[in-house]
Amino acid sequence: MPDKFTSYEERAKRHPNPAAKALLETIVRKKSNLCVSVDVTGKADFLNIIDIVGPYVCLIKTHVDIIEDFDASIIDRLQELSKQHDFLIFEDRKFADIGNTVALQYSSGVHKIASWSHITNAHPVPGPSIITGLSSVGKPLGRGLLLLAEMSTKGSLATGSYTEEAVKMARAHRDFVIGFIAQRSMNGVGKDTADTTDDDFLVLTPGVGLDSKGDAMGQQYRTPEEVLRDGCDVIIVGRGIYGKGPSVDIQSVREQAERYRSAGWSAYEKLL
Ligand code: 6AU
Fold this sequence. Notes:
Belongs to the OMP decarboxylase family. The protein has ten helices and eight strands. By secondary structure, the protein is of the alpha/beta class.
């Protein structure tokens, strides 16, 4: 895989995990490798933005714990929009605890993430037991997990041997771990040369912006072209699309969503 560029279409055909397969198929069907990160705190803005960007994305990323007026109807509507506009859902929960605790956080509580989120993510810091815990809940439901192998922030500690160990953990749990939050392709990372196993990890990449290089809190942005060239598969864009608030300009959100979709797709086509 690392030495040969493979299309999303070919990868969809052979991917064993249902969530990864569905994501790759959606990318192909909609010609979109764009995931919009909807980091707003009001229910109305949250659902409005998703309704507007829905046609342009393969995936919607949520942080449901930041919604001030959260109730179960938000999830019902999110699921309706997911069917109507044909996108998958990724709750960016960043689990980071022992297996037993993350299994409860994933299945239960106010948000019941596993029941509606096709994909979620976890920090590898506790070791493989975090995968065992999440997999006990998510695998029977056909869900997929991403490990945070790298981060987009200045001074991130997720580098070097930490990143390599994360990839090794994923390799040992391919049935449930579908890839990474990272800044480049993770195929082949941490492998000894004798190991010929063929990696096909999805890489979803935050820290993407066309007009800005970062924010005042350590975020760093690269362009869709730069991240695709480095082997990333999905671009995650938040404020680049809906601005920094407080109010949301719906017409501009639509234009930016199409602009980023088109930039992400042309960057991919250049690699084919
Ligand atoms: O485009 P932004 O900067 O408005 O939003 C980026 C989104 C935020 C972060 O919580 C998330 O991406 N993120 C992540 C994820 C997805 O796990 C990891 C990371 O290293 N950097 C990052 O920004 O919702």
